[in-house]
Amino acid sequence: MRQAAHFEEEFPGASRSASEVLLNLARTSSVTLAELDRRHKEAIGRLSLSGWQALAVIDGAGEPLPPTVIGERLLLTSGSITSLLDTLERRGLVRREPHPDDRRKLLVDITDKARTLVDPMLAQVHATSMDVTAGISEADREHLIQTLAKLRANAEAMGARPVPPVTVRRRPVHSLSRRGKRGT
């Protein structure tokens, strides 16, 4: 997505390229997640995306995990992870086991039935990543990974600070009276 040529004239102090980066990042994320969701539904049907992610986290760990670790990795509250694990357990996809060192704790492991769902979905995730990055060189992929890490670090740091006052003000561009000619 590109901004209109007059973007910086209309928004003095703003950056056309910075705006385009954010718009393209958001749109790419949205389109990619929608495709992953479409492929997920085809591969494993009624299992929710968060349910599948929980199974993938446990399977990827290679050992049973405490519910708190699963919740942290999925960015879910303790109540949400408990509800999710209850659902997965009812469906025969996870089992809760006593912790070997602490009787007050439980560990969660996936069942063989769950592995039959995780394996094709993981293959689908990897196929999707290859399809999305087709035609992009390894060097460009590495550069993108590094750039995205910087963007993520900036966004995370922003979350720890108060929202600053807005200093960019819009200057109406009267020569573009029709809305359709303006950028996003």
Beta-strand content: 5-15%
Low-pLDDT residue intervals, each spanning 5 or more residues: none
CATH class of the domain at 7-129, please?
Answer: Mainly Alpha
Q: Note the total helix count.
A: 7
**Count of β-strands:** 2
CATH-scheme architecture of the domain at 7-129: Orthogonal Bundle
Helix-strand string: HHHHHEEHH
Sheet with the most strands, sense and barrel status:
2 strands, antiparallel
Structural class: mainly alpha
CATH fold-level topology of the domain at 7-129: Arc Repressor Mutant, subunit A
Task: Write the topology of this structure.
Layout: H1 7-10, H2 16-44, H3 49-61, H4 67-74, H5 78-90, E1 94-98, E2 106-110, H6 112-132, H7 138-159
Antiparallel strand pairs: 1-2
Helix pairs in contact: 2-6, 3-4, 3-6, 4-5
Descriptive terms for the model:
184 residues, mainly alpha, Arc Repressor Mutant, subunit A, 2 strands
Structure explained in plain terms:
The protein is mainly α and 184 residues long. The protein has a domain at 7-129: Orthogonal Bundle (Arc Repressor Mutant, subunit A), CATH 1.10.10. It is built from 7 helices and 2 strands. Strands 1-2 form a two-stranded antiparallel sheet. The longest helix is centred in the N-terminal third of the chain and has 29 residues, at 16-44.
